[in-house]
Specification:
Blueprint lengths: L2 H9 L6 H13 L4 H14 L3 H13 L14 E5 L8 H10 L4 E5 L9 H5 L11 H10 L2 E5 L6 H12 L6 H14 L4 E8 L8 H18 L2 E8 L7 E3 L1 H11 L5 H17 L6 H14 L1 H12 L18 E6 L4 E6 L1 H10 L16 E4 L6 E2 L4 E7 L2 H6 L1 H7 E4 L9 E5 L1
Parallel strand pairs: 1-4, 2-3, 4-5
Antiparallel strand pairs: 5-13, 6-9, 7-11, 8-10, 8-12, 9-11
């Protein structure tokens, strides 16, 4: 085989065989096929797409490029959850302990945030001493001992995906549904889960801006799961406004704890219970999502979810004292309230605008590997549908200094739209794909 022939075939719209895809991915991973040839192949995929079978074969090839975890010796059925990224999205910190406390083990590899989309690993590293880099032995032991482990992605799992993504990032080929779907699913399969629930975000603060795009991505990932024997369901959820009231890292950990204590915002609880209920269904623990929600509410109200979270933090060397005293989490030295300029109803809050502002004050990063400030972020005091008086606080900025806080004030104020009529608000959960 020759790389140029496979580039030509995909350029002209021909389906590639599994053998051809395996050869190309293997050769690229080993260094035998050049970056510029694979870049051309990725661009051909961007324009021509891939069939469901091709996408599944690409996923398999990326999984085969590295190490795969086998969790069957410690748990007969392990589940995972993945979010396509949003603003204020701390659902993993709630869903995972609730599901684990309900008797279904959760083993998850997570990533760091990039751009205005936050990352679970960054949030967890707000906790003093918490270890996200675990060996295979430690990962498996966490599943066995606690029923819950969340660790950072290792370089030896689906390494082809890492190399391909690095090329996509610099060749304008990121926005391809087959490439996005295979990238996400290769990592999920490599971690040894038996079922995955996908939280596909839709709206201004998400990668997928329309319901049609989100649905297409969800279906592509579901179909990959069907091809490789992995149970997959997808929840499409609204990201026009931030999820919950906190945006940042430590502030989101605090909100997750408050939610596990039974004091969570309505939209955050709705998404968490929906995601968790479908994991319980796929695991065979309950017969329906409604039954799953009832069980998760019981786990939440009994405090079992919070206790599982405590054991999870301790197992990964984190100091659990913050759970009983949230002030022990990193605290920003400057806190400034932003007030409404007029009275009325909050009609919308631009999630992307707040996400980009959080990056500006240091809560996120624009390039991989850049440092972040775990203490900074925002606490929303009002959400769409709430009534507000002129001069009333609508959001509190947590910043490292007053200069950075003042610099983002115009974009913060512009993110809140206030009108005279109370808006009709859609459900945060938009659609379920099973």
């Amino acid at each position: 085989m020759r790389a140029v022939d496979l580039i030509t075939s995909k350029r002209d719209g021909r389906e590639l065989t599994a053998e051809e895809i395996n050869w190309l991915v293997s050769g690229f991973t080993s260094g035998d096929i050049t970056d510029y040839q694979v870049s051309a192949w990725l661009m051909a995929i961007y324009f021509r797409g891939m069939s469901a079978r091709e996408t599944a074969d690409l996923t398999r090839a990326m999984v085969a490029s590295g190490r795969q975890l086998d969790l069957s010796d410690v748990a007969p059925f392990v589940v995972d959850k993945h979010s396509t990224g949003g603003v204020g999205d701390k659902t993993t910190l709630i869903v995972a302990p609730l599901v684990a406390a309900a008797g279904v083990p959760v083993g998850k590899m997570s990533g760091r945030g990039l751009g205005f989309s936050g990352g679970t690993i960054d949030k967890l590293e707000s906790i003093r001493g918490f270890r996200t880099e675990l060996s295979t032995k430690e990962f498996i032991a966490g599943v066995a001992r606690v029923g819950l482990v969340v660790a950072s992605q290792t370089g030896d799992m689906a390494p082809a995906d890492g190399r391909l993504y690095a090329l996509r990032d610099v060749t304008a080929t990121v926005e391809s549904i087959p490439l996005i779907a295979s990238s996400i699913m290769s990592k999920k399969i490599a971690t040894g889960a038996n079922a995955v629930v996908l939280d596909v975000k839709v709206g201004r603060g998400a990668f997928m801006k329309s319901i049609e795009e989100a649905r297409a991505l969800a279906v592509a990932m579901r179909d990959i799961g069907a091809e490789v024997g992995l149970k997959v369901r997808a929840v499409l959820s609204d990201m026009d406004q931030p999820l919950g009231m906190a945006v940042g890292n430590a502030v989101e950990v605090a909100e997750a704890v408050e939610t596990l204590q039974g004091n969570g915002p309505r939209d955050l609880v709705e998404v968490a219970l929906t995601l968790g209920s479908h994991l319980l269904v796929m695991a065979g623990s309950v017969k329906s999502p409604d039954e799953g929600k009832v069980r998760l509410v019981r786990v939440l109200e009994s405090g079992e979810g919070l206790e599982t979270f405590r054991r999870f933090v301790a197992n990964q060397s984190g100091d659990t004292s913050f759970i009983d005293d949230l002030s022990l989490l990193p605290q920003a030295p400057i806190q400034i309230d932003v007030s409404a300029r007029q009275s009325g109803y909050i009609t919308s809050v631009d999630a992307e605008a707040l996400g980009r502002a959080s990056v500006e004050i240091g809560a996120g990063r624009l390039v991989k590997g850049a440092p972040i400030d775990h203490a900074v972020g925002f606490i929303l005091r009002k959400k769409p549908g709430d009534i507000v008086e002129a001069g009333e606080t609508i959001i509190t900025v947590h910043a490292a200094n007053e200069v950075s806080a003042r610099a983002i004030m115009p974009s913060i104020e512009a993110a809140f739209v206030i009108g005279s009529d109370q808006p009709k608000l859609p459900s945060t959960v938009l659609e379920i794909i099973t």
